[in-house]
Write a structure and sequence with these properties.
CATH architecture of the largest domain: 3 Solenoid
Oligomer: single chain
Radius of gyration: 20 Å
Shape: elongated
Structural class: alpha/beta
Low-confidence stretches: none
CATH superfamily of the largest domain: Hexapeptide repeat proteins
Number of helices: 5
Number of domains: 2
Number of strands: 28
Length: 270
Amino acid sequence: MIEVDKLARVHKDAEIGENCVIGPFCTIGPNVRIGANSILRSHVVVGPHTIIGEDSDIFPFVTIGIQSQDQKYIPGTITYTEIGDRNVIREFVSIHSGTAEGSKTTVGNDCALLAQAHVAHNCTVGDHVIMSHAATVAGHAVLGNYANIGGLAAIHQFCHVGRASMVGGMSRVIQDVLPFTIAEGFPAKMRVINKVGMERAGYSSAHIAEVRKAFRILFMRQLRLEQAVKQVQEEFPGSINVKLMVEAIDQSQRGLARPEDETFELNVSD
């Protein structure tokens, strides 16, 4: 059974899944598909060409699939927004559609986007991502699976925040954050390995140990980055996790949020 409040407005071309609840003052645009068992509590606006997965809980005053704020957007362009399953999207979150024709913004599964968080046009947000209160991700940024973005943090456009990494609250991220690390500051710099985050994501003690050692080789031995990368590849030839770190370095467009000198002290006794 689908429950649509009499004060909601659902476009005739929208598809609403079984057991969905559409609360009062919600507005659902054309070519929208909402998966089964999802709840839109009230005052939720879903723009055209948007997919929302199953079992999602969307709180009041959320906007999803609204037109990009990018100044390059051309009125009439058709763009897309895709939201996965089992997401919790809290009050006043905004998730914008893509900018260029046919492009899209995506959010994966099992994410928690807390109040006033913002995901800009053409972003890719992975699975199990947490964005705390008022965290902001600019256009074309990528958040890896299990990334944790602290409250009031801001991610610059095109930046990559790696898998199982963490960005501290009120940080300004203007360069890439490698997988499995913690970055914080203004601008943000990588500090240590995200041990707690890795544990919560199911990584073993052995996996954490090898990532920690790789981090030290990359940044704590005063090696040129090319030399350090070569060394970690030689020491951990079969490590998938170290490979992810190396790939992130190789693919970086904005450069790395490299640790500062005082970061060495944080890692000596770790």
